Amino acid sequence: MLSLYTLLVFIFLLGPLVIISITSFEPGTVLKFPPEGFSLKWYKNIFEVSAFMETFRTSIVISLLGNLLALLLGVPAAYALSRYRFHGRDTLNAVFLSPVLIPGIVLGFTLLRYLIVVYNLPIVAGLLIGHTVIMLPFIIRVIASSLENFDFAVEEAAQSLGATRVYTFFKVVLPNIRSGILAAILIAFLESFNNVDISVFMTGPGISTLPIQMLTYVQNYFDPTIAAISVILMVLTAALMFIIERLMGFAYFTKR
Amino acid sequence: MSLLSLEHVSVAYDNRLILEDFNLSLQKGQLLSLLGPSGCGKTTTLRLIAGFLNAEAGNFMFSGKDYTKVPVEKRNFGFVFQSYALFPHLSVFDNVAFGLRLRKLKEAEVKKRVNRMLETVSLGGFEKRLPGALSGGQRQRVAIARALVIEPDLLLFDEPLSNLDANLRVNMRVEIRRIQQELGITTVYVSHDQEECFSISDQVAVMNNGKIEQLDHPANIFKYPASEFVARFIGFGNFIAFDGRNDEGADIELSRGELKFQAAKRPGGEGNTGLLGAIRPDDLQLLGAGADMGTGTEGNALTGKVQVSTYLGRSYQYQVETELGVFTVNQEMEQPFIQGQQVTVYFPKEKLVLVQ
């Protein structure tokens, strides 16, 4: 009985993905299930529509650059939050995590209102800042959780042996949270790469990300190209999640 | 001249003073233990010496120089942590070599010194292991080797054995004392375990509330605690508050109302001026009521009734109710006293000490 229930849940969760995957091989021009044949032509089409290639490149660049910025801000923040007990620590913790708690639409609109409208930033800069903001909480949270298993007496040991604080951070602390940092980068990358709600506000004429381009495409065409892209993104995501799981396990998702 | 001295040092944490006007000094080559219950300031003192904490006031002098403002990494002190604090990502060899490489020694010299040190702590052959693959005792030995290999001017231990099981603790403390004496290295050792401190130290400082209650050779502390706190901490379970004292005779004459007691003077004189008598449960003697107590035992005895009797294995422990309160007595005996029995509690005058 219980296994039947589990099976139904699985069908409910995975069914649409399976159907999308199958329909992506449809040879006709309209998305339908079951498909009437087998063809890779819509996969080929992805690479022929220049908008997809361009926005894919934009997405990658924004995600990687944003990731770098979020790391530069997030690693010191995570370190300070884990290492020290100071006044206002809990508040700061909440502030750093707030982008996860605030609905994306609200955050997106706010960023648009201030960065673009008030400060008149170029679109790329606004997009980059927006993505950095949504990646930051993931970076901080994952790295802080890997620092939680780190005994800071180890840091003191290094100092007592003659190491400066900076040397200790790079030679002792960083090597021990390496897998946490890698996992943080991958998770943040996924979060940014798949993001729609912030990007939809921050993209503009000539500059868009892949998910926004997909959205635009679906509004105009109903061919299986979108299904094909979806399959590619699913495979990419699954591969990254596999690596994350290998690095850290999924335990930190449920922690605190 | 002392190698190390803390002069009028104050340390505050979260606006609370942990140490206030604290003084301590130590001779070269000695092992000093800081002993006390948790929160007494012993770890704070150690971390202050190490340089992990800054003093609000006062000076830390080391070998004639002012070390108060010298940062941790410039002090050349070895520190052994309770949690071992090994570098988890480095092999045993690289852990021990860490300090030497920072001192820019040639790799051949590093290798020679690390290997010699690993032999000293009986860890030859473990060079390539990661700390995660070692037992607690082995980890602690790596930690000691790592601290010693830099030839520190001072060695600091923070409860190094409290994460080990009882048998290993005894072996390791003998090991620590052996290495310390072999290398003649001045050491400060923090523990809350009195047996551990007494067994390895040249000097023990018993601490309470950020103050040193008594600083002396372990045997002196064990026999002649200076204060009620020290007496209680090292197992003097019984106390009598006297109201009169006369030091003129061969023994100290004490009185409590109508009751008379005698306490032997300390050899070498200069005893304590206190009025509180203290005695260990092991040193009290229990006699059946009306038993012949022999000569010279006038006074120094109380009659009472056995309240509780418990079996400790090597001896029986009795709670005896007397007119001066309840006393705890440990006594080996073929035929134990039973609950409710009338007994006499006898206080040997050599064992009764006076504390402040």
TrEMBL record, chain B:
Q: Does the keyword Acetylation apply?
A: no
| UniProt xrefs under SUPFAM superfamilies | MOP-like, P-loop containing nucleoside triphosphate hydrolases
* PANTHER family linked: SPERMIDINE/PUTRESCINE IMPORT ATP-BINDING PROTEIN POTA, SPERMIDINE_PUTRESCINE IMPORT ATP-BINDING PROTEIN POTA
Q: Which residues form the ABC transporter domain?
A: 4-234
The protein's name is ATP-binding cassette domain-containing protein
Q: Which UniProt keywords apply?
A: ATP-binding, Nucleotide-binding, Transport
Question: Which Pfam families does the UniProt entry name for this protein?
Answer: ABC_tran (PF00005), TOBE_2 (PF08402)
Q: Which organism is it from?
A: Paenibacillus phytohabitans
Molecular function terms from GO: ATP binding
